Amino acid sequence: MLSTRTQLRRRLKQVYRDFRGAREILRALLSTDHPLLAHIIPIRRCNLACEYCNEFDDFSKPVALAEMFRRIDKLAALGTSVITISGGEPLLHPELDDIIRRIRKNGMVAGLITNGYLLVAERIERLNRAGLEWLQISIDNVTPDDVSKKSLKVLDKKLENLAEHADFHVNINSVVGGGVKNPQDALTIGKRALELGFSSTIGIIHDGDGQLQPLNEEERSVYHAMKSMEKRSFTRINAFQDNIAQGRPNQWRCRSGARYLYICEDGLVHYCSQQRGYPGVPLENYTVADIRREYVTEKSCAPHCTVSCVHQVSVLDSWRAPQHPAPVSAGAGGLVQIE
Questions:
Q1: Which of 308, 298, 295 is nearest to 333 (CA)?
Q2: CA-based nearest residue to 224, from 187, 194, 182, 189
Q3: 258, 256, 270: which is closest to 305 by C-alpha?
Q4: Residue 123 CA to chain centroid, in angstroms?
Q5: Mean pLDDT of 265-284
Q6: Could you tell me the CA-to-CA distances from 83 to 20, 38, 170 in Å, in that order?
Q7: Which of 113, 142, 301, 336 could form a disulfide with 86 if both were Cys (CB 3.0 to 4.6 A apart)?
Q8: What is the pLDDT of residue 233?
């Protein structure tokens, strides 16, 4: 049982996060010339090898801290609202706490996506002191299998550690779709997340061959049951995944390259983790002119996109600035979805 003092401290931090979030939404409505969210990759290496994942290797070295500082400072100069640290497994970076501190020093919101394996109590307390504001773990099943080792059985103690020690917001994302053997696992995971005081979301994943298929009847049933549990989630934009679940394309204006930036370990700006290669501009050279170009550039991959964070930041601008296809010479015609 958490002490009254701890509950009050966490509540005050949540109120402050909500205030900052509302402030950034207002700023986004007033100006379209800055990114709302950037994902940065401090290390590509991961301690797991999930069959469906194409975002990791088992050998890459951490990006040097000085280089990470330069990238964070550049994102701040572009007016970025939120930086999410991803990977690979970002907790493998030996100076992750300093990276988080640099984000906060620049006045940006600091988030982290992790597989959770390294979250012992002492590590969580260090994340508190560094100023982390939110964390997400995706849990794919109740017990490990040949597709994923991110299971509730393995991670439940880590979740209890978070419930006891974390002062930042925690979201647990469960999944349905290709490769998930028991769709009902998502409900078990979601209920456990809420029981521990976290928010809970659900995602649709591709299979090991990178293909997306409409959900079957059981998967759709689980998906809708999970959606009814998402009242405490930090995201309530359901229409995109509702269409994906039924195999229908989405008609929307993807603002990747503008409102959303994916910065790989080499420091290049990409549309997202699944469209690495374009625009492929070094972050150090990225300008407001690049943001304005990509803001109005139609993305050929958008109708079947499953990258929910891009959906979320793009929806703020759905009512303005119609897009047009990129010139063939710019390389947009050669986009290859590597998901």
A1: 298
A2: 187
A3: 256
A4: 21
A5: 94
A6: 14, 5, 16
A7: 113
A8: 44
Could you give phi then psi for residue 274, rounded to 5 degrees? -100, 0
Quote the CA–CA distance of 252 and 271 in Å, as a whole number. 15
Tell which residue, 103, 61, 66, has the closest CA to residue 84: 103
What is the secondary structure of 36-83 as a DSSP string?
SEEEE-S--B-S---TT--S-BSSPPPPPHHHHHHHHHHHHHTT--EE
**pLDDT tens per residue, range 90-110:** 999 999 999 999 999 999 999
Q: Tell which residue, 187, 162, 163, 161, has the closest CA to residue 174.
A: 187
Q: How far are the Cα atoms of 113, 202, 326 from residue 185, in angstroms, in the given order?
A: 21, 11, 42
Residue 101 confidence (pLDDT): 98
For residue 42, give both structure tokens. Answer: 């401090």
Torsion of the alpha carbons at 11, 17, 20 and 26, rounded to the nearest 10: -100
CA distance 153 to 207: 22
Per the listing, tokens 């991961």 go with 46
Residue pair 108/78 in contact (Cβ under 8 Å)? The answer is: no
Per-residue pLDDT of 44-53, as tens digits, reads 999 998 877 8
CA-closest candidate to residue 326, choices 251, 248, 257, 252: 257
Other CB atoms within a 10 A radius of the CB of residue 64 amount to 11
